[in-house]
Amino acid sequence: MSEGNGNGQAGDQASGQAPAPAAEAQPVKLQILAQFIRDLSFENALAQKGVQGEVVPEIQVIVNLDAKKRTAEHQYEVLQKFRITSRNRNGGETLFLLELEYGGVFHIENVPEAQLHPFLLIECPRLLFPFVRRIVSDLTRDGGFPPVNLDVVDFVALYRNELARRAAAAQPKADVTQ
């Protein structure tokens, strides 16, 4: 037997209409308000001191992310920090070092508080990444090297790794005394 809705009629399902949700979820609003280079450094060690013999470059990329709320309502600043080092496999000399801090200011609405942190550190960097890739490519080419075309960064994996690192750091260390 179905329960009535207080006016002697069965619920909406008996009338063939789908029940209305209690509160319609508002769609997420995301707008990039600004993009900027906060800091940029390119050091061409190869040109400064030279390298003897065959050069076999090996590239290491380190990515760090940061996000913070701005004073304006619904505005957040997301900063990506890239440190790209190229070393010669034959000898280990540094060929170049590129450091780039690239940021964006975002207007974000209707993201639940519990999902805001991952949204800021996954979705926002994903939107900025093509611009970072272009800057790195142009800078390495203009610095006298073949252009470095960064592989796509898995921001979900970066986020999960950071959560795991923080959880491990927060756990008390076991007492190993004898």
Description:
The chain has 178 residues and is of the alpha+beta class. It has a single domain, classed as Roll (Bacterial Protein-export protein SecB), CATH 3.10.420.10. The chain is built from three helices and four strands, in the order βαβββαα. The chain has helices at 45-49, 113-142, 155-170, and strands spanning 29-44, 57-69, 75-88, 94-109. It has a four-stranded antiparallel beta sheet with strand order 1-4-3-2. It is globular. The termini are far apart. Mean pLDDT is 85; it is low at 1-15.
Radius of gyration: 25 Å
- The best one-word shape is globular
Q: Give the terminus-to-terminus CA distance.
A: 68 Å
How many domains make up the 3D coordinates? 1
CATH class, named Alpha Beta
Strand order, largest beta sheet: 1-4-3-2
Could you say which structural class the secondary elements and strand pairing correspond to? alpha+beta
Low-confidence stretches: 1-15
Q: How many helices in DSSP terms?
A: 3
β-sheet strand percentage: 25-35%
The count of strands amounts to 4
Describe this protein with a few key phrases.
178 residues, alpha+beta, four-stranded antiparallel sheet, single chain, Bacterial Protein-export protein SecB
Give a short summary of the structure.
The chain has 178 residues and is an alpha+beta fold. Helices cover 29% and strands 33% of the residues. The chain has helices spanning 45-49, 113-142, 155-170, and strands at 29-44, 57-69, 75-88, 94-109.
